[in-house]
Write a structure and sequence with these properties.
With 702 residues, the protein is mainly alpha-helical. It has 27 helices and nine strands.
Length: 702
């Protein structure tokens, strides 16, 4: 998952943590950072610094907007569009720290600041995009754009900003603008509350405490040791605690022989936000769905999906649904066969019960061993976090010539965070990369990529980005380093692909540099996953953490052969969530709905088998209710068509490190990705539009 650039025109929610106890009088946001590479001085930032910086940032941007509006000269590109593009620097500066820390290392103080800020920032954003005089100047430039002797990128920036204002309600009459403001403010606060509730439900409200060693039967020693450490940290030494964090929960579901406890932990997971407590999200889901219809209708759209997808490569909800249903019809029969195969194992073992959702991982692992002779625990010793990290750096070096040098002199917001200086092959500075690996109570679940500073231009010079990659992987302990599952390996490569996109992006205008359609944004990340499983790459990074021996060829062969393993399940659970998202946001009437009934009806209509739940159920579907992917969860599989087709080009060339192809991919799909529409940029690299065949083949659906 990748967070988009923090711009007031998008106001996407990022997040971060602050430090308390400072009695200094100088706010570090009010001056140039005096750190190496001008990274944020996390060791000097106090929680009390955020609100004053936000308030001054909004005041400064208001002054900049007033200067544009009151300029006596006729509207031109420089005095209107470029001036607006450059506005709000302080606001962006503090926002990139605060919102990122609030997601990666939050606390009660930061959450309170976020709540206090929310209506102020929502109003500030609306005040800009509903500023009649500002829009009038932008429109005058837009109307004359082809007569002003501008270059293609300047015209593109003008057109993008004009569309932004249109899509934010600038052409609406005053009474409808006032209504839109209220809707925007309410939606913003609801999304914030949804996320806070989910964080509590995931990290605080559930723990599986095991005090009988027999209940650990089947679990690998690494999972047992990690649970013992968690229990000790919680003051329960001698017991074992399993949490809803994926590194804790998934091994339990895969290996624990105690079926009742497997059900308990999985039920804890899929009931998040649906427990009738103060963190219940059902009513919030209903309100958001209703308000999105009102918002879309106010802006002249039949439904919210039409509003969102109009700007994407897919263009219409109908195109998205047609695409998803083709894949659904191919994947559902495969998942049914997988379920039948698991039921046969249950019956053969005398289980005398019907396969349920909390059994899937357990019996899938049995099939994995039986059919492919591959045990996840045989792989993990070869996937120490540091080796996998070095492997992805190696791939980037082979493709693009860039280098990564670890720095220990840069301030970080949490002690486990690593920092790397990134350079071009010729030694030219490219940017800084932060890596934040492990779960903590103040970090939301999942993995994502964001930045503390985006690419830009200042006085004719490129501003180097500061990119951050955040994950939730198994922590090391006294006996072993952090050992990754195969899914975590591909996750790290995935987020690293987003990081490369952020590092490589260039452009003179914030509005277009790296700004791509939402259904393109996962291409740079997903394409990197392909290299992770290549034998040549595995031989480089997959080395036993104790002996240093390279992964045996028979394990490499098993990884290759098991590529189609469990693809019915993985595709169906994803598509179920993507189609649920589309159902919510193709609603055309702003009616009150019951979230659970709505979800049940949506899944029933699809014929989803009861053994599989949607990857995200409504009450914890963060992507679409507080994560910026509303009517956009489909983008991962849309981009999968692109990434499978793109990697096929490397495979067809006979060289997975083909430098000529890498140079073209970097130029058109990463560096200049915002210079034109997504499909046009992709076609510049590939020479044609993508084919769906490589994806179907990769997933065993054809």
């Amino acid at each position: 998952m990748k967070h988009f650039k923090f711009l007031l025109l998008a106001m996407t929610t990022l997040a971060f943590s602050g430090f308390t106890g400072s009695d200094k009088t100088v706010n570090p946001f009010f001056s140039e950072y005096k750190t190496p590479f001008q990274v944020p001085p996390f060791d000097k930032i106090d929680t009390a610094d955020y609100m004053p910086a936000f308030l001054r940032g909004m005041k400064e941007q208001n002054a900049e907007i007033n200067a544009i509006v009151n300029n006596p000269n006729a509207p031109e590109f420089l005095n209107t569009i470029d001036a607006f593009d450059k506005s709000g620097k302080l606001l962006t500066k503090v926002g990139k720290v605060f919102y990122n820390i609030n997601e990666a290392n939050t606390n009660k103080q930061l959450q309170k600041i976020a709540r206090d800020l929310d209506p102020l920032v929502s109003k500030h954003s609306d005040d800009i995009f509903l500023n009649e005089k500002l829009f009038a100047r932008i429109k005058k430039v837009y109307d004359r754009r082809n007569e002003m002797k501008l270059n293609d990128q300047q015209i593109r920036v003008i057109e993008k900003y004009y569309r932004d204002f249109e899509r934010r309600g600038a052409n609406l009459p005053k009474e409808k603008q006032d209504e839109l403001r209220k809707v925007n403010a309410e939606l913003s606060m609801l999304a914030l509350t949804f996320g806070e509730n989910l964080l509590a439900e995931t990290n605080t409200n559930f723990k599986l405490v095991v005090d009988d060693k027999k209940d650990l039967d089947g679990l690998p020693q690494g999972a047992i040791d990690a649970a013992a450490v968690t229990a000790t940290d919680a003051g329960m030494k001698g017991k074992w605690i399993f949490t809803l964090a994926k590194p804790s929960m998934i091994p339990f579901l895969q290996y624990a022989n105690n079926r009742g406890l497997r059900e308990k932990i999985y039920r804890g997971y899929f009931m998040r936000g649906n427990n009738g407590n103060t963190n219940d999200n059902k009513e919030i889901v209903s309100k958001i769905a209703k308000l999105r219809v009102i918002q879309a209708n106010l802006l002249g759209y039949r439904n919210y999906a039409s509003y969102v997808i109009e700007e994407n490569m897919a263009k219409t909800p109908e195109n998205v649904n047609e695409f998803l249903m083709k894949l659904w019809e191919a994947a559902l029969p495969v998942s049914k066969k997988e379920a039948e195969e698991m039921q046969k194992i249950i019956d053969r073992e005398g289980g005398n019960f019907k396969l349920e959702s909390w059994d899937w991982w357990y019996y899938a692992e049995k099939i994995h061993k039986e059919k492919y002779e591959l045990d996840e625990n045989d792989l993990k010793p070869y996937f120490s976090l540091s080796n996998v990290r070095d492997g992805m750096f190696h791939v980037a070096n082979k493709l693009y010539g860039i280098t990564f040098t670890k720095r220990t002199d840069l301030p970080v917001y949490q002690k486990d965070v690593e920092t790397f200086e990134v350079k071009e092959g010729d030694g030219k500075q490219l940017g800084i990369l932060y890596l934040d690996y492990y779960p903590r109570d103040g970090k939301r679940g999942g993995a994502w990529c964001t930045d503390f500073r985006s690419n830009g231009w200042e006085n004719g010079k490129r501003i180097d980005p500061v990119v951050s990659l955040v994950c939730n992987f198994t922590k090391p302990n006294l006996e072993t380093p952090s050992l990754l599952t195969w899914d975590e390996v591909t996750t790290l490569f995935h987020e690293f692909g987003h990081s490369l996109h952020g590092l490589f992006t260039q452009g003179k205008y914030y509005r277009t540099a790296g700004n791509v359609p939402q259904d393109y944004v996962e291409l740079p990340s997903q394409v990197m996953e392909n290299w992770a499983s290549e034998p040549e790459v595995l031989r480089f990074y997959a080395k036993h953490y104790k002996t240093g021996k390279v992964i045996p060829e028979d394990l490499i062969n098993k990884i290759q052969k098991s590529g189609l393993f469990n693809q019915g399940f993985e595709t169906v659970e994803y598509l179920a969530a993507a189609l649920l998202d589309m159902d919510y946001y193709t609603l055309t009437e702003p009616s009150d709905i019951d979230a659970l009934t709505f979800e049940k009806d949506a899944m029933g209509k699809l014929g989803l088998i009861p053994e599989i739940l949607p990857r995200y159920r409504s009450t914890y579907f963060s992507h679409i209710f507080d994560g910026g992917y509303a009517a956009g969860y489909y983008v991962y599989i849309w981009a999968a068509v692109l990434d499978a087709d793109a990697f096929a080009a490397f495979k067809e060339s006979g060289d997975i490190y083909n430098k000529a192809l890498a140079e073209k991919f970097r130029k058109y799909c990463l560096t200049e990705s915002g210079d034109d529409e997504g499909m046009k940029q992709y076609a510049k690299f590939r020479g044609k539009e993508p084919s769906v065949e490589p994806l179907l083949k990769r997933r065993g659906l054809k």
